[in-house]
Design goal:
It contains no helices and 19 strands. By secondary structure, the chain is mostly beta strands. It has a single domain, classed as Porin, CATH 2.40.160. The chain has a 19-stranded mixed β-sheet that branches. Strand 13 and strand 14 form a beta hairpin.
């Protein structure tokens, strides 16, 4: 299946802690200020096409989609160590199918977040709650015979850090609730892709300074996940990481290690590995290249477990001070461990986006 899309896919509920995208070199300019609050407004439009909206081997139905998205990021810097942040984004998508039908869906964008950072004695504390509500079947590569995939995910967590002089100790815990339902182009429910999953994750990190801009250490993450109609999974992930600025123009974020699983699904190997990598290089003040890759076991929906390998390579260009164009081709290699029958699949995709960041001083 070939896919061209401007939509950002839903985030899988991973057994290992997810890698955050490397932020832009240039901080966004505030759209306006309300007292101490700094507001950043982002708008985007896009068009997408997939040759197989239902993800079926026969009787394929193509889909052309138009997307309009708007997000508002609000930040209140209370003090040097205290900050309140609210990010909320929405996407409106119109789908036009080759069989003559069409539908309009609304999604709460991945990245919508309420976060509070503050200092408590020698500890830095971060409380957060993130939500996303995606209605896009191609965001779940394991889904088949599904034209509308409604996926709601809510993650609430806490992270605390303390500088021990020689190292920085981080402790974290979060809880994720995922609810998913799928339907065909005729509106009929697909029970194979309908269910719920709850995941509790606790982790620790010990970080050392290689130099002033490069850091290394070890991550440990323990996960317990249970789902309605799907296998229960307990996992332990342990491995090193390296992140920071390799040069003034190059950022890196590498992590990997050993994964141990205890699950009710006998198809899952008890011992395997995970890795995640991000590299970003700034060619000039207005253009940068981004490369990313990962390998992990993921709950691509509430019922199935998929071993996935994802490779992405993209470019971002500032067309003006306020308009950015990006394009990212990707390859998704999946091994569905718990489907009936299990099997491997490959997804090729291209994500393209045009983002507008207005700037008005109020």
């Amino acid at each position: 299946m070939a896919q061209v899309s401007s939509l950002r896919g839903q985030e899988s509920v991973r057994t290992a802690a997810q890698q955050l995208e490397i932020a832009s070199f240039r901080n966004p300019i505030a759209f306006f200020h309300i007292g101490p609050l700094e507001e950043v407004l982002l708008g985007s439009v896009g068009a997408g096409y997939t040759d197989n909206a239902d993800l079926t081997p026969t009787n394929k139905i193509s889909d052309f989609s138009l997307t309009q998205a708007l997000s508002l990021n609000c930040t209140w810097v209370i003090s040097h160590f205290n900050q309140l942040q609210l990010n909320f984004g929405g996407e409106l998508t119109e789908n036009f199918y080759s069989n003559g039908s069409n539908q309009t869906t609304f999604a709460v964008s991945p990245g919508s977040l309420l976060q509070f950072q503050f200092a408590l004695s020698d500890w830095q504390v971060r409380l957060y709650d993130s939500i996303q509500n995606v209605q896009n079947p191609t965001s779940d590569p394991a889904a088949t015979n599904v034209a509308n995939l409604h996926n709601f995910t809510n993650t609430a967590g806490v992270e605390i850090k303390r500088d021990l002089s020689l190292a920085v100790l981080s402790l974290s815990a979060d809880y994720t609730y995922n609810n998913q339902s799928g339907s065909t182009t005729t509106g009929a429910s697909n029970p194979s892709f309908t269910g719920t999953r709850q995941t509790l994750r606790v982790g620790s990190s010990l970080q050392f300074n290689w130099n002033q801009t490069l850091f290394y250490g070890i991550n440990t993450t323990a996960t317990r996940s249970s789902g309605a109609g799907g296998p229960n999974v307990d996992s332990l992930n342990v491995g090193p990481f390296l992140k920071g600025k390799l040069t003034p123009w190059t950022d890196i974020d590498f992590s990997g290690g050993l994964s141990l699983y205890d699950t009710s699904a006998p198809q899952i190997e008890p011992t395997t590995y995970y890795f995640a990598a991000s590299i970003r290089h700034q060619l000039n003040p207005n253009m940068q290249l981004i490369f990313g890759a990962l390998h992990d076991l993921a709950f691509t929906n509430s019922t199935f477990l998929v071993e996935e390998t994802v490779i992405r390579a993209g470019a971002q260009v500032n067309l003006t001070r306020f308009i950015t164009l990006s394009a990212t081709p990707s390859v998704y290699l999946g091994n569905d461990k718990t489907a009936s029958p299990p099997g491997r699949f490959t997804l090729f995709g291209v994500e393209a986006g045009l983002v507008w960041k207005p700037h008005v001083r109020w």
